[in-house]
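Good morning C.,

I know you're traveling, so I'll keep this short. The sequence:
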Amino acid sequence: MWGFRFAAPCRVEKFGSETTLAPACFGAKPGTQRLGVRFLTVVCLTILQTLVVGALSAQQATAPPAPVAQPTHPAQQVARGRVFHDKDGDLRMTATDAPLAGIRVSNGSQIVLTGAGGEYELPITDDGAVFVIKPRGFMNPVNEDKLPRFFYLHKPNGSPKLTYSGVAPTGPLPQSIDFPLLEQPEPETFEVILLGDPQPRDTTEVDYIAHDVVRGLIGSGAAFGVTLGDIVFDDLSVFKPLNQTIGLIGVPWYNVIGNHDVNTDVTIRHLINETFESHYGPSYYSFDYGQVHFVVVDNIGWRENPETPGQFRAVGEIGPDQLAFIRNDLALIPPDQFVVLMMHIPLTSTLDTLELFRLIESRPLCISIAAHTHNHTHHFFDQAAGWNGAQPHHHIVNVTVSGNWWSGKRDERGIPHTTMSDGGPNGYSLLHFDGDQYRLDFMATGSEAGQQMRINLPSTVTADKTSSLTFQVNVFNGSARSTVEYRIDGAEPWLPADQVQAIDPHYQELYDDDQRLGLAYGGNRMGKPALSSHLWQATLPAALAEGVHLVEVRTRDMHGREYFGQRSLRVMSAAPEPAPAAPEPAAGTPGDSR
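The tokens, ready to paste straight into the viewer:
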């Protein structure tokens, strides 16, 4: 479903070269070349099937059985269609439109380039998809919720019966599956909105998102936005109201699948995405914007829980089929083009991370972004992590919209403070590109909107305690490549603070209150404190005189940008030592009034 169908047969005289089994066939006679291609494809598939079966047989002799049985895929058909510049915007190819040659089209494994007439051919199964890889300077049509329509799902019988409905029956394969593209300018300087884990349980929490995040983004000048998985929190009926809400921002919106976005009443991986697909299309794909190539990765594996046989759970896993797509996709991307991979589960918790590393580590311009942990973290993978690239790989674990799963006391707006367990506020990120340079901005929401740090320092202290007073600074977007310094009352020089892996004392205080009050205030309980990767600590250098002092903090990020924070500190006189108590008179002595 979706994609664009035409009843008239599509005459294909030549089509683009595939990156996998089928050989290139530009300029060949259609009839003879197709017979040759089909014969070679059958031979190659037969050989491949023999090798795979042999390999699996050998593996079964030495390894425990796979926890999830793989489905038997139905016989393949051939999907045909055209990609065209939709000049009049009517989503149909007419005389005023122009075919587009050299556009990438994929079935989730193979990738072909369209021929001179915009035509393509790809094998497709009865549980498959075909999608166009958006080129620079063009955009896919979007629906009423700003979701790009870049795909056609082929499920003649629809999804199986599940708790949450999936794809309706699509019927027979259309004779032509055509993809219109709309021309648009794409400069080399642009920004992308990144939302990690909005994760609403219901429409009440969708409204939190509307007022806490979406309201401030309406009319954004961003090129597009991406939700990095856990779009919802298990109730897949919430997809639609959330799509409507995020659509108010007004920019095209892509979606990554998360472990709380899946159909849980299945036992095989390829069925966990049925409801997701009905809203967003394929769970992995790629597209270009400006000078950057974006790859959406589905790393939600589905395996039997060894502790509870018969029950299945999500694990971080990309899988061989998708790795093959990524390999074929990147084979068509120049080695010096900027590549961004977007996924849900961090690579630190993905089973086949090393296999992915082998596909990207030769690229000098490549970063990856995840969410899932409800903390904000910067990783720089090097050889110790199995990365063999010339420079460490920057892997961002993004701040979450839902923070701590919409927990904690509500503020004056009726929205929980939902501070993340590393002490950072909930919010979102803006990813900026300028040529081959990038930077990530942390955008806090709620009471700390516009802030980049929190200084954990008491308001008052007695004079005798100042020289031993330790304080902490939570730099929300801080990393191992950040520096933090402080000074008091403008005195020079700035003094360094030390990065520590510790629990944020501000969060600990919030958590303790939450445990003490329970659910008396309503809402959801907070998660346990976690070590923060962006916390710095310092001790005041000397005794301070009585009065009010200004503590200033300066941080410099990995891109050389500086941010400042301030907090006042009142120093009070030390409380006088209490006078020793007078001894009580002995009983019966003079002066005894008893």
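Safe travels,
E.
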